[in-house]
Design brief:
By secondary structure, this protein is α+β, with helices and mostly antiparallel strands. The protein has helices spanning 3-23, 37-49, 59-66, 93-105, 122-129, 134-164, and strands spanning 26-31, 52-56, 83-87, 109-115, 118-121.
Length: 165
């Protein structure tokens, strides 16, 4: 294989990363060392179910892909083994799912990430990962406003029933 083909292959990977970043709401970087094949397969399945793309890339390719983008601050965490989780629908999904996996396996660690254009270090990603999802927050909010409304409806019904008697 000539050097032209080799360069074209490298550029194709960089372009693939750029494409993912353009579509993503977030990108979380983890040190993935220590997990076995079975654990990696189970983890990928959980991530895929949440529409999170998990891929291992060479740091040099990612460095090229993030130049001039909202993700360029990730450059500060690109050393050693790095895997990348791209969240497309829910920006916090990669952090939340990976956090559960890190707790379960007691392996891997957050390096950092960018969520909605904002860079966070590994510790901050851990905090974000512990927050409830948008859907959970909406459900809790709806539950909290539904309770007083249903009490009010029952009270009005009791008053109405009392006047009819």
């Amino acid at each position: 294989m000539g050097s032209q083909e080799h360069l074209a292959e490298k550029q194709a990977v960089v372009d693939e990363i750029k494409e993912k970043l353009e579509k993503a709401q977030s990108a979380v970087v983890v040190d993935y060392m220590g997990i076995n094949v079975a654990q990696a397969t189970a983890m990928r399945k959980k991530l895929r179910e949440a529409n999170v793309d998990y891929t291992v890339y060479k740091n040099t390719f990612v460095s090229r892909a993030i130049k001039g983008t909202n993700y360029q601050d990730l450059g500060s965490v690109l050393s050693g083994p790095s895997a990348f989780a791209f969240g497309y629908e829910d920006g916090t999904a990669p952090a939340r799912i990976l956090n559960d996996i890190i707790k379960d396996y007691k392996k891997m660690a957050f390096k950092g990430g960018v969520i909605d254009g904002q860079f966070y270090d590994g510790e901050a990603i851990k905090v974000i990962a512990s927050l409830p999802s948008r859907e959970e927050l909406i459900a809790k909010f709806m539950g909290s406003i539904q309770s007083p409304v249903s009490k009010l409806v029952r009270t009005f019904q009791a008053i109405a029933d009392g006047k009819e008697a």
